[in-house]
Amino acid sequence: MFDWAELLQQYGYFTVMIGAFFEGETVVVLGAYAVQQHILSYWLLIFAAMFGGFVGDQFYYYIGSKFGYGFIKKRPKLAEKFDRASSLIDRYPILMILIMRFAWGLRTLIPMSFGVKKYPLIRYTPVNLLASFIWAWLVVTLGVQLSHWFENIWQSLLPQYHDLIISGAVIVCLIVIVGLLHAFYRSKKRHDPSAKN
């Protein structure tokens, strides 16, 4: 028989590192819930998230440095965002490194832009390490606190409104299923020439 708590404790940090590499607040917040449940360690989770985020940002810097503006230019959406990010990097390079993990929609582009602009790696790396720590600490700390609040709210509501919550969940699931079936049917009808006759 598997001990799921032990498995999560052993592989949870690795999962968080991979998730943080790919912009993963979701994985870090799930890890924070595991901290709140005493499955993962608070500080180890912060360092796993920090490491994954740091390596990801260094990787994107390397992509920008190695392939240059040509890599971005081939992708019109990235090129448009690059111009916006580039002007901010020119004016506030340290601040942009510190806040880039909080800039949703630009998080992979900003480190790439630093690489494209050949910003000195010796200056980029230590600030990125600090930025990764700040991001990881903030997301884990907020995640643990939110997990604690939600669990308290859930435990206070569950005994009093158990039947109401279950009924509501069943109704929501039924609405979602009917909506998905309706969307599927409409999509199939739209693409089926025999259905139009």
Automatic annotation (TrEMBL):
Task: Quote any Pfam family the record assigns.
Answer: VTT_dom
Q: Which UniProt keywords apply?
A: Membrane, Transmembrane, Transmembrane helix
VTT domain location: 26-144
One of the record's GO cellular component terms: plasma membrane
Recorded superkingdom: Bacteria
Q: Which residues cross the membrane?
A: 12-35, 42-63, 92-110, 122-144, 164-185
Which InterPro entries does this entry report, sorted A to Z?
DedA_domain (IPR051311), VTT_dom (IPR032816)
What's the name of the protein? DedA family protein
Species whose genome carries this gene: Acinetobacter lanii
